[in-house]
Design brief:
The radius of gyration is 39 Å and the shape is globular. The chain folds into 7 domains: about 60 residues, no CATH class; about 110 residues, no CATH class; about 240 residues, no CATH class; about 90 residues; about 120 residues, no CATH class; about 50 residues, Orthogonal Bundle (Arc Repressor Mutant, subunit A); about 60 residues, no CATH class. It is mainly α. The strands form 2 sheets. The protein has a 3-stranded antiparallel sheet. The chain has a two-stranded parallel sheet with strand order 1-2. The chain has 39 helices and 5 strands. The longest helix is centred in the C-terminal third of the chain and has 28 residues. The N and C termini lie far apart (about 95 Å).
């Protein structure tokens, strides 16, 4: 009797979806005969509660009162929806409006739609639970809000007033909403796919639902849930279709053709292929099923979303099973150049003169995709959690797959009858190299030992034999040498960079430097792809750190200048996305930038890199500043603009407290070194805690102390040379606690480079300073004016030279002179003297006295 009554806010013709389904269950067979044959339309018609054609029996009383006039027309369709369905449609429309507003950052609309959403969900609650689509929308909106707040903190560009008010309103209301549905939100964040696919508890059904048979469509048979008993795979006529080895190829072809289409249930396809894998008997069928199954699992990870962990594990096991199958049955070869077998009725067999059955496919592509999915997963995991460490252990299994794939390609490459592309072998060797070039030798040794244990002892590699197991350097050398001789372009460049990186990591600076210079990659690196440019930047930084560990301060600073001096270390090393100060990054570009980021275990410590760069800049800039201050006529030059800016900012501070970070330690050490307090400078540098991350920390600190002593001596001589006539070597040795021979060597080097106007008396071990004429303030300004006037004249002459290179007639018409007047003042060559004074005067009038005054003031 309940169906003849209605609630206070429902229309007179509304009824529950259960009652409609009960009344219309008898008419479903008639409706299915009128539906189209495509799988997409069948799935949509089966999932909807709409009725096609005129209704019969009791169901015609379920039509809305407003559509009575339409019911008389047999040609028109009538759609019946209950009040609850209408409310769900309104909820979905509001959620869609919120998602569209998120794309354009319209927080005003988001706030209004969010209020509307909260009002709508009250009527759809089942006890204390809300619809799952609502929970998903709230959780995603909270993540989007947190991201917007984080960007607002670091971006100087402010929102407009409407967006700011909307963002604050959403921020206040969403906390209350999340707290109210905390348990459901936690379940969604724990596993979103399982939460959305779980049995729906939002719509309790008081009446039992009529059992439906799953029909086979054009895309292939559908398999029910494994835990649901009593279901079987049937065709459209209701007859059960058991899987058989004879029908595997037809099923596979149907599944392959349906991949990529809309409304394709990928999980259903995977379950079908798992069933096919169990019934496959011949090696050929097993290989085909495993290939399709692995590819279908890869379809689950698309865009920036990583492949689910359980499917990654399953794909890794299935790839191992495929390699085992190929290693066992040598007469079945998977190669890219094989032709597709078109006959689905029978399985190919070996003929009288055939040696192999070739199956089209690419093992290296499966390995690369599996490796890429692991990298993408590591990018999306917080590196400071145990989950990252657990996920990183899967690198051993993927490296084992790479090694087995390399051995497989080497095996089939030996057969001259097979056309195996050399590129496939090069790609898998490069993958192996990418996993070991940045690791210490001890880690590489352990990784190699664990991988070779999975390979039979009778199998060996010709490219990198098992005998290289204990020497990581020889292994890298063997892999790189193979790529040098058998590849070109990007793969060859990457192999060279990997070897240089490994040499620099293990303190072989001179070999790494020579390889970098002879490769000439610095000349054409901009022509390569972004990933190779990132590898080049990482290699350059590693060479600079290696030079620093060797005590080569000038080489280290010169190498790190391009990367550290730009202020874009994170972006250039692919260790973070830099915020754009004066421009907006498109979502597509931001997505590509995030995809290029390296996993955390491959990062180079940026704080250590900055510390090394600033320390090297200090050791070079402080003596240079002292030399410029004591000799005004010397040409001013800057070694590191970044360091100069930091030093000037530090000197402008009124109050300087104790150092708190690496930059403060280096700046205060610079200040102490410039004042002659070299012991204090050493103390500041040694107190930097980041040195503990470098190997042989004590040796690094001893090297730095020695460098600071020497540069302190040079700074002292530059600063106080005008005040001395003679200075004993022993006195300098006592002041800076250096050996007399070392002091004499430093002074001799400064004299030979004409940095110090002095002579060294080796008999008395005394430095004799040559006194020059001390310039007054007026003379110094006159010299500066003279230099700037000379530069201005040179600029004038270059400008005139550019103009005189044009047509002589055009120049004469423009300047109002004749060609005969111009020939007297034309230059005979670049930098040569002029023969006529009229032309110099005419050229000089082009720059007024105001320009000269501006140059002097500058």
């Amino acid at each position: 009797m309940s169906r003849f009554f209605r609630g206070g806010d429902d229309s007179s013709t509304e009824s529950s979806s259960d009652e409609e389904e009960l009344y219309t269950s008898e008419e479903e067979e008639e409706e299915e005969l009128d539906q189209e044959e495509s799988s997409e339309e069948e799935s949509s018609e089966e999932s909807s509660d709409d009725d096609a054609g005129p209704k019969k029996g009791v169901s015609r009383f379920l039509v809305d009162a407003g559509s009575e006039s339409e019911e008389s027309d047999d040609d028109k369709e009538t759609k019946v929806k209950s009040a609850k369905d209408k409310r769900f449609d309104e909820l979905e429309a509001t959620i869609t409006a919120i998602q569209n507003s998120q794309k354009i950052g319209d927080w005003g609309t988001i706030a209004n739609e969010f209020d509307k959403l909260n009002r709508q969900v009250v009527k759809l609650q089942d006890g204390a639970k809300a619809p799952k689509s609502y929970i998903k929308c709230v959780a995603e909106l909270e993540d989007f809000m947190n991201e917007a707040l984080a960007k607002q903190k670091v971006t100087p560009k402010k929102m407009n007033a409407t967006n700011a008010r909307g963002l604050n309103a959403v921020k206040q209301r969403i906390k209350k909403t999340i707290k109210e549905y905390q348990s459901q939100v936690d379940d969604f964040r724990k596993d979103s796919e399982a939460f959305m696919e779980s049995s729906d508890e939002e719509e309790p059904l008081p009446l039992p639902k009529p059992t439906k048979l799953k029909l086979q469509d054009s895309a292939g048979p559908e398999v029910g849930e494994e835990d649901e008993k009593g279901f079987s795979i049937v065709d459209k006529k209701g007859k059960a279709i058991p899987f058989s080895p004879e029908s595997i190829q037809k099923h596979l072809r149907a599944i392959i053709e349906s991949r990529g289409r809309k409304n394709t249930d990928r999980n259903e396809q995977i379950r079908i292929m798992e069933e096919l894998n169990r019934v496959a008997e011949t090696p050929y069928l097993k290989i085909r099923v495993l290939q399709t199954l692995i590819s279908a699992r890869f379809d689950l990870g698309s865009g920036s979303n990583a492949m689910p962990l359980e499917h990654w594990k399953a794909a890794e096991k299935e790839l191992g099973a495929l390699l085992t199958l190929l290693e066992t049955h040598r007469d079945h070869i998977v190669v890219e150049t094989a032709e597709e077998w078109e006959d689905d009725e029978k399985v190919p067999v070996l003929g009288p003169g055939d040696k192999h059955i070739t199956v089209p496919g690419s093992v290296v592509s499966y390995i690369e995709r599996l490796d890429d999915e692991l990298t993408r997963s590591l990018q999306n995991i917080d590196p400071h959690t145990p989950e990252y460490i657990d996920r990183l252990t899967d690198e051993t299994s993927i490296y084992n797959a790479i090694l087995r794939g390399l051995l497989y390609y080497e095996t089939i490459k030996k057969d001259s009858s097979l056309d195996v592309p050399q590129e496939s072998l090069n790609r898998i060797v490069q993958r192996r190299l990418d996993h070991i070039y940045f690791k210490p030798a001890q880690v590489v040794k352990i990784l190699e030992e664990n991988s070779w244990k999975q390979v039979p002892s009778s199998v060996d590699s010709a490219i990198a034999p098992r005998s290289l197991l204990g020497d990581a350097g020889k292994l890298i050398q063997a892999l790189c040498s193979y790529l040098f001789h058998n590849s070109e372009g990007i793969i060859r460049a990457r192999a060279m960079l990997c070897q240089i990186y490994f040499l620099a990591l293990h303190d072989e600076y001179y070999k790494a430097r020579d390889m970098m210079l002879t490769s000439h990659l610095q000349e054409n690196i901009t022509n390569f792809d972004v990933a190779t440019q990132i590898l080049y930047n990482r290699t350059l930084v590693q060479v600079g750190l290696c030079a620093f560990r060797k005590g080569l301060v000038y080489d280290a600073q010169n190498t790190l200048q391009d990367i550290c001096g730009s202020g874009r270390q994170k972006e250039l090393l692919a260790q973070g996305v830099m915020m754009q100060r004066f421009g907006q990054v498109s979502p597509e570009q931001e997505r590509l930038e995030k995809q290029r980021q390296l996993p955390f275990h491959m990062h180079i410590n940026l704080e250590l890199l900055e510390c090394v760069y600033l320390t090297c800049s200090m050791l070079l800039e402080i003596p240079l500043l002292a030399q410029i201050g004591s000799s005004p006529d010397i040409k001013k030059r800057v070694i590191s603009k970044t360091y100069r800016r930091m030093l000037e900012y530090h000197e402008r501070q009124i109050f300087t407290g104790p150092p708190e970070n690496t930059r403060d330690h280096v700046m205060q050490a610079s200040k102490a070194l410039a004042a002659g307090e070299w012991k204090k400078a050493i103390q500041f540098i040694h107190n930097i805690k980041i040195w503990d991350l470098m190997p042989n920390t004590d040796d690094i600190k001893a090297m730095l102390a020695k460098q600071i002593q020497e540069e302190g001596l040079r700074t002292y001589l530059f600063t106080y040379a005008p005040f001395y006539d003679t200075l004993a070597i022993q006195t300098l040795s006592t002041m800076f606690e250096l050996e007399p021979a070392k002091v004499a060597a430093v002074v001799s080097k400064m004299i030979s480079h004409e940095e110090l106007a002095a002579a060294l008396d080796q008999v008395t071990e005394t430095v004799i300073f040559r006194k020059g004429v001390e310039l007054s303030r007026l003379q110094s300004l006159a010299l500066a004016l003279s230099d700037k006037a000379s530069a201005l004249i040179e600029t004038n002459e270059r400008t005139l030279e550019v103009r005189t290179q044009g047509s002589a007639n055009a120049f004469s018409r423009k300047d109002g002179r004749q060609g005969a007047q111009r020939t007297g003042g034309q230059r005979t060559g670049r930098g040569g003297p002029r023969t006529g004074t009229a032309q110099r005067q005419a050229g000089g009038t082009q720059f007024t006295g105001g320009a000269l005054g501006a140059a002097v003031r500058g």
